[in-house]
């Protein structure tokens, strides 16, 4: 009997080569391309995406998937076929008309948003956004109709694209705990920090020097420059493939620490990708599990490694060497400067203690919007009301620093936001497990030794790929599912007990 | 009646988008990619090339081309269809087995050549090279069999891929003139230069300073950084698409002029590409005509613009500003240093007066090799004999600086070499026409004004694309076909009369 699995493997490997092309052409677009290259690049990317989509939804693949024997007793193969079917069925349940309409509406809404946000023009934005929401509701309905048993609500089908495996009920339960316990902690932290002045880390830090510093940080965090690059872009991001992980950061002449944090963050994302199981290269089962885990890796590198006192002690001489203007700064000063907490309007500038509320607001609004519990016109008031309730500040009619501040919704990326806070919780939970297994973790970090951490992550998360579901990964690695207590404990230790 | 031309236009535009992806992924491979990215990249490029080839030789395209009415009285459309048919017929006349075998044999031969050349290992090289030549002869025979009326010899079919429109008989006639008249000129030049010492341009020139200098040169030559980039690679090259022309150069800490020449050269290539007719974007008729013209543009920028006394006078202050270590150098010293002539073994290091002989040797040998007049084992002796006859130096058994020095043959790129010297002649011929039309050209260059040159090139060459044949372009622009007299006159003026 012919093996019906191997043709599938070859099919997906070929698909992954088109994906490779799209990945690096997009990277080039963001990082290298001169402005006038944009017309030809957009057309090339559209052609490749269409080729990719056409091959993914082809009858040929559908038949291969139907014929394959998934009742084998080889668990690896069962997992691989399960993930293949997931990718295929996510793609076929949408008509190409809907996909195209969403692409066009999303691109227009995002493009005009840049100016509209600037102008605080909510009405103008709402005009375009209405079409995006309409199409995303259609998308959610179509996905829901195809798999009514798998999803609790239409919104869950969009959530599943980003937070695969963590449904809206589970996330709601986690967030409810945060809403209950975080305000009290936050109040104490603010009270506590009122006693001390924020240290001033500003200075003149030439970009070339910062570049050197950031590369050194990546080396210290275990990044391999034979398998990746560091470049500059307006918004830090990471992308690539095995052996070629590319991250970006941005530099400000008067602030070096922000860019260090961004670089540590993206190094975490890149480390996950480079640690994925080699034997499944090109197959869905070899991909990162979901964004809640992806973000847990980046936040672990950013908040649980770089931003600890022992690691900063270790890294301080490198900072002094690369940036002579920092010679008067101690590790403790850096730590104090980078761990200030203050409620504010803008999510991307929020500290780790207030960030969850920014996410919860978005989660609650987008869920109800997609599930047709609320309408677009309700958003500004809901936003203001939730901001006042959770963070004690009002946005009023300052839409540009309120409900218009993020890009995510403009092109219809609903279901993405929860991963930020799920990732923060997961990262605290993983760190707790690692520290429990390595009680000398502070000495290790102070000596610049992070191998034990990378090994733990490789074994428990990276090399697992998508062979099991996300909460199984949490369970196996930490003994329980995503549990906000770890995150709350982390905040208490760092901000109230002044530990690490 | 339905228009049968538009579907063809759309078909080729789609093909050009796959080409776009290949172009920029290859650029990235050469310029940006970390070493470990190479495995995934090679697979992605192979997949894209296969996709491109499959779509190009498809029955669908064959039928579209058969059905299209090319007896229209619209000359633009006639030209466009002619070029489409040329691209298609070049691709379909080879079996995919032959294409694949050639790719594999070429890759192996090129890869091992790097070490074999180092080891002066002719026998080892000949082993791999035999397979490459065998397959290229098959290729030439297959192309010849399909179009026996269009080509004089099998070699002409390979020549046609690079020097499209300039056949081996025509090139032979041009080269015969050079073989007759160049030796006498060369002898006089050497005699004349014996009187003077070569000025020493060596010094310490930091790469960052050189980078700034090279960018300034590109700006002076009319390069638009909104439509392109300058980067670094082991061997300078240029590639890209409309609006995104990317050139590379290389830097040596002790020599700045070589990298300037390379940058001017590649700026010429990029200017041609960016000047191609916009209305034919994505269509074969909108492409550069052939390499004899492409190389004429690069050599014109390198030898007829940068390397003239008036331009160097204009540019000297920029050199002094960017490279303080050059402050003692005058424009005349630079010019004298960069216009030294001396027969030598290595083509890529040859001056413009001896370069043609390096090309003639290769042309005569590769032609006879593909047409089965000689065999691989004859090459070393022929090389030595021709080097002695044309340049008065013997290679003997120094194969690595003799017949093993170039990469071109290793992967079967026969028919490429002649374009270097045809390009040099064309560039002298175009310059003569421009100078005749602008008798004040030296004052213009001394003022840094090159607009009149770019305008002439745009009108006469760049914007013509492939709408007419190469020698028609020469005829229209200069009143005659490629004529070596212009090149010989250029050498006499520059090296004997000590003009410009
Ligand atoms: Zn992230
Ligand atoms: Zn060239």
Automatic annotation (TrEMBL), chains A, B:
SUPFAM superfamilies according to UniProt: Metalloproteases ('zincins'), catalytic domain
Manner of cofactor binding, per the entry note: Binds 1 zinc ion per subunit.
Keyword Ribonucleoprotein attributed: no
Pfam families per the UniProt record, alphabetical: Peptidase_M32 (PF02074)
Example GO BP: proteolysis
The protein's name in its UniProt record: Metal-dependent carboxypeptidase
Binding annotation for Zn(2+): 265, 269, 295
Top EC category: hydrolase
Similarity remark: Belongs to the peptidase M32 family.
Function text: Broad specificity carboxypetidase that releases amino acids sequentially from the C-terminus, including neutral, aromatic, polar and basic residues.
Lineage: Bacteria, Pseudomonadati, Thermodesulfobacteriota, Desulfobulbia, Desulfobulbales
InterPro entries, per the entry: Peptidase_M32_Taq (IPR001333)
